[in-house]
Amino acid sequence: MFEHEKCYLVGENPTYDNLAELMFRVGDYDRNPNVLEELTKLINDILLNKDENCDILIQRTHAALKNNGDHLTILNYTKVFAIQKRQLPEDHPDIGRTTLSYGSLLGLFVLIVAIVIPLLYGSTNCRHLAIRTLHTMLALKHSLLLDEARPTLSAKYRAFEDLLRMRSIEYDPLSDPINIIKTIRSTCSMCDVIPKPSQCQINKEVFEHDEHSIDTYWIDYPMRKFQRNSDKLLLYLHGGGYLSGNINDYSGIECHLSYLFNVTILHVEYRLSPEHPLPAAVDDIVVLYCALLRDNMSPSQMMIIGDSAGGGLSLLIVQALLAHQLPVPRGVIVISPWTDLSTSGESFTRNDEIDLIFTCHDVKWIASQLLDPNKSQLSLNNPLLSPLFGSFQGFPPMYITVGTAEILEDDSRRVLKKAQAVGVNVTFEEGLHLMHVYPIFFSYFPEARNTLDNINKWIQTIFTEKHN
């Protein structure tokens, strides 16, 4: 018997018995292309060299990791925990060549995956790539399964439902509401689900009017210089139950819409509850709208678009503009709008068991955090908070889309009925068996993309029609 020394890297949990097994993950490779070459050379040395002292290899490994700093090819939380020795028995003379073959194939496979997956999904965000890869695997499973009760749904949509069922947002219902809201804000981020494309241009601008300031962000995927006196503009009012949401969460969505609709989007960072109870958000948007009018933006150039709470806020804004006798925008697009904070719609009961985002209890708890405790006379069905109970007389054309598998379904249907009763031009799209705000998940399933295409056609039609 004679003894060969072989060194190899192991991961955080060294449970691998195969010789020369390398546990590493590749991510952000394109930020420093020299990193991959350097680590590949080091790995090959470890695989090939039978005689080099393991202590030297340890030093070289640590040096490689340290020198690359923030540009590690290895994921931030993947570390080298040990470099171990193995004894090779005499009766395995070809083990070196076998190990090299397996190691080379593994390295080649990882390299190919590291290149192909980011190109396939158009992102180097590692969390996003993990989500998209898992979604693709689930979609393959669902492509082999038939949902007889919901035959219109694509396999990709049903796979996305599985992703939602896997999510876990844990909080103590008896804890301080402020702490719960902080948990919601930190765990419900959209930036990994729909990340911002690197080509999208975002610029911050603070608008001031009547000693009131509000932060906004210009979203311009076509990357052209916006002309305020002529170009079309969409004001985007994000969702989040009036409790959460910001530019980081929504930049990926807004960049895509800017590209798809071929318009500049202005993201509005309106104030959130409970720090700033409703109707503070309404005041912010009205101030911004007045500032845009002051800067020679024509109402005929502007539309307002919002999802969920942002959809309800969009309707509140138009009602506030009409109350102040200000000109209204060219059109309003609302995606699964929350229009009734009192939760009086029948769908809050009918769809409570099938809604993948909220329960009726969730919505009631959120609504309870929106009011100023010092103004108890302001009830949840007050038109200043719930646009469903306000007037739709004088509204511009509206586009409403809602899923039939969400508890807010009747919030949209009741607005449709009231608006049509006073002669408003309303286009209504029902997403059969679809979830809350389904169009914003355009990267994952065709149902979302189809609805966004319909909205795009509607926007272009409204903007080209003769305006009174």
UniProtKB/TrEMBL annotation:
- Transmembrane portions of the chain: 100-121
Q: Does the keyword Transmembrane helix apply?
A: yes
In its keyword annotation, does this UniProt entry include Transmembrane?
yes
Q: Where is the Alpha/beta hydrolase fold-3 domain?
A: 234-438
The highest taxon in the source lineage is Eukaryota
Q: Which GO terms describe its molecular function?
A: hydrolase activity
Q: Name one Pfam family in it.
A: Abhydrolase_3
**PANTHER family (UniProt xref):** AB HYDROLASE SUPERFAMILY PROTEIN C4A8.06C (PTHR48081), ALPHA_BETA HYDROLASE FOLD-3 DOMAIN-CONTAINING PROTEIN-RELATED (PTHR48081:SF8)
- Identification of the protein by name: Alpha/beta hydrolase fold-3 domain-containing protein
At the highest ranks, the source species' classification is:
Eukaryota, Metazoa, Spiralia, Gnathifera, Rotifera
